Amino acid sequence: MAIRPRRAKVDVASPSASPEALLGHYRDMLLIRRFEEKAGQLYGMGLIAGFCHLYIGQEAVVVGMQAAIGGGDSVITSYRDHGHMLACGMDPKGVMAELTGRAGGYSKGKGGSMHMFSREKNFYGGHGIVGAQVPLGTGLAFAHKYRKDGGVCLAYLGDGAVNQGQVYESFNMAALWKLPLIVIVENNKYGMGTSVERASASTELYRRGEAYGIPGRPVDGMDVLAVKAAGDEAVAHARSGKGPFVLEMKTYRYRGHSMSDPAKYRSKEEVSRMRSEHDPIDQLRRKLETEGIADEARFKDIDREVKAIVTEAAEFAQTSPEPDPAELWTDILLPA
Amino acid sequence: MPIQVLMPALSPTMTEGKLAKWLKSEGDKVSSGDAIAEIETDKATMEMEAAEDGLLGRILVPAGAENIAVNTPIALLLGEGEASTALDGAMEGHIPSTAPVRAEAPTSLMPAPKAAPTAPEEREHAGATRRMTVREALRDAMAEEMRRDPAVFLMGEEVGQYQGAYKVSQGLLDEFGPERIIDTPITESGFAGLGVGASFAGLKPIVEFMTFNFSMQAIDHVINSAAKTLYMGGGQLGSPIVFRGPNGAAARVGAQHSQCFASWYAHVPGLKVVAPYSGADAKGLLKAAIRDPNPVVFLEHELLYGQSFDVPEDPEWVVPLGKAKIERAGRDVTICAFSRMVHVALEAAESLAREGIEAEVINLRTIRPLDVETLVASVKRTNRVVTVEEGWPVAGIGSEIAALMMEHAFDWLDAPVGRVAGADVPMPYAANLERLALPQPDTVVAACKAVCYRK
Asked: pTM of this prediction?
């Protein structure tokens, strides 16, 4: 078997994004927001079960980062993964149907919220063990370098995972071998119910690579354009062969850690202040209005489009059949 | 049509709850995301958020009501421009559909998969052989597969410049260079995870653990990342990787460096587990493991590395995984063993022969999937089985074989299955105690005589 070099498409969008790009970011963030709200509702109706970690509030991070990479680059994350999959261009119907555990889901209903993959979209999961996606992502970056295909890997982790030992084992190897790895720490201030201050001796998480000579930047993760700009810098660094880069996205999740988390560890005021003053979608909407890029009618159109996609996904997720009982025994081993 | 607001499930285990408090009143305007009520679940009190924009038209369940089943309508929401008269009759004929579309229900439990999937036929080797050590056979297997497939690479501690902690990778760095023979830092969890990630991308890593004792640092990646991903992804993403290195007890290295992991890894669906004995096994099985599209745990034995055997030279010769080998034919008792214990079993068979007991020795070669067919066929001839392993007895490979023999060969057994295993203790250091902790030919002889009812 020959190694096929895959040339990653380099996104050369100018730093001052075009009106189309801005509208695209708005639409993509809104899609994630509405999708997650719908997932929350379906959970409430008992159609989605088990663990379900919603991404509401953090949308700017994945949308901004996705805009900074190209088609041949790879993405991997932890279990709060619905937003990442939608940003990668995976079909909302397949994602939602996986949440409801149906045959039409990305994993035929066998993976659930935390375990979905798409080779086609270079999305490598969806991993439930906190921190495990970092060495796995380092391996994806290793494969890009091994094949010399010019690709980079985006590996996302949370502020909780950042204290796992294997994260630093990965930092060491990625820096040692100059692997094209961009580590994105989504600091939403709480690892489940424990605030960063209560969990981390050093809370400047973007500096966690310093011992390995890995540059890092803190980023306003509620501002999609700030994310995109930082992403551009980190991706250029990694793609040019200089090795890994750490981005700490200061972000916020509005919902609990998972559906069953009453979030008693933070005040209502804190949540409503973030919602009213820093919401990534509202911020971009104001910019689009001020700059005259979109008017009320245009926003209504986008709303309608997004709502239709989400409604269709929810409908599909409820009508797709449960997996065939025979599926219990498939996909354990590939034929040798 | 007003929208029914339903009692939500707010935890994985909630079936009913208390409507603790309404945070909005009838007539209030609500936006999607607004907290409208407090619900007490089995675990906590949670806020319930509106899913749609609208006007809270009617509250159907008052605050303080308990034991409200999930999905009971608790309020009606009027949409934009909807008159309050629409509230009347809103409850008629509208039953929320929450029951999933059931796939055809199985009438009984799914049958267990065949204990041994039919293994590919083993090709009888008639070509040239060369006398070589197990160490060289393993090295040749890797070199041949690396020449054949540029996606194959080797990584681990001291595999390159040092030429292998046990000299298994001797010469490979010279031939393949540092891009494919990769010296890693001492960081098992990290490089095992890195290897699995690279395998997701289609590369075929061989990850060497200096010994399998250190694989415990990385076992999460072997099991959660490598073995389960194909299933969790509905077949989309496999992990073609080999984890290899010496397993089991070496000599006088104490408890933390002397342990057999066969039973640990054999427990896991999604893994294949291989344990070669001879040089031919080592070469043919390792080549098959590297070519296999699934994650394979390949358990070598340090004390066999220096042993010499005749090994086929043909680079296309492989030993299919899942196929046991009868090393010695016999009619009185079947001894099944793997790895170095095959040697112990063969020695035991020699002494048994001197006492007129002809033992059949089966070299399992693959622990998962186990070649039940060959075992059962042997037991049908001998009617007695003794299992031999270096690992601990509890939930060991011998336990599994005993269970399989009951399921598949009960009517042919003339005696209970005999188990010989390592002593159920951490491995001691002292020479005499270490010897007592490991199966020896005489313990195997005694077990065989016991199942033959001979003194």
From this structure: 0.90
The dihedral region occupied by A206, where left means phi > 0, alpha psi between -120 and 50, and beta the remainder, is: alpha
Terminal C-alpha separation, chain B? 88
Residues in CB range of B432: below 8 A, 6 or more apart: none
Q: Which of A63, A78, A15 is nearest to A223 (CA)?
A: A63
| Residues of chain A positioned with their CB less than 8 A from the CB of B194 | 135-136, 138-139, 142, 170, 173
The label of the residue with tokens 């290295």 reads B253
d(CA A274, CA B401): 60
Active-site amino acid positions of B: 188, 257
In contact, A125 and B225? CB cutoff 8 Å? no
Round to whole Å and give the CA distance between B316 and B108. 45
Q: pLDDT digits over A239-291, tens only? A: 999 999 999 999 999 999 888 888 889 999 999 999 999 999 999 999 999 99
B-chain residues within 8 Å CB-CB of A49?
Answer: 12
Nearest 5°: CA angle at B347, between B341 and B353?
135
* CA dihedral over A278, A280, A285, A290, signed as positive or negative: positive
**C-alpha span between A77 and A82 (Å, rounded):** 10
Structure tokens at B422: 């390592």
Is B48 in contact with A44 (Cβ distance < 8 A)? Answer: yes
Q: Does B277 touch chain A (CB under 8 A)?
A: no
Name which of A59, A52, A54 is nearest A24 in CA terms: A59
User: Residues 202-261, chain A: which have Cβ within 8 Å of B?
Assistant: 254, 256, 259-260
pLDDT at B120: 66
Q: Kindly report whether the peptide bond that precedes residue B73 is cis, defined as omega within 30 degrees of 0.
A: no
With contact defined as beta carbons under 8 Å apart, do A285 and A26 qualify?
yes
**Is B44's CB within 8 Å of A260's CB?**
yes
Q: ipTM for the complex?
A: 0.93
Task: List the structure tokens of A183.
Answer: 């580590």
Optimal mutation site among B7, B48, B148, B237, interface A, most CBs of chain A within 10 A: B237
Distance, in Å, from the CA atom of A246 to the CA atom of A202, rounded to the nearest integer, reads 15
Contact (CB, 8 A) for A54 and A259 = yes
Confidence of residue B116 (pLDDT cuts 50, 70, 90): very low
- The single-letter code of the amino acid at A201 is A
Q: Give me B349's structure tokens.
A: 């068979």
CB contact (8 A) between residue A138 and residue B270:
no
For residue B170, how far is the Cα from the chain centroid?
A: 30
Q: Give the integer Cα–Cα distance in Å for A84 and A275.
A: 21
Class of domain A19-316: alpha beta
Number of A:B CB contacts under 8 A?
239
What is the number of alpha carbons within 13 Å of residue B255 lying toward its C-beta?
A: 7
The residues spanned by each domain of chain A are 19-316
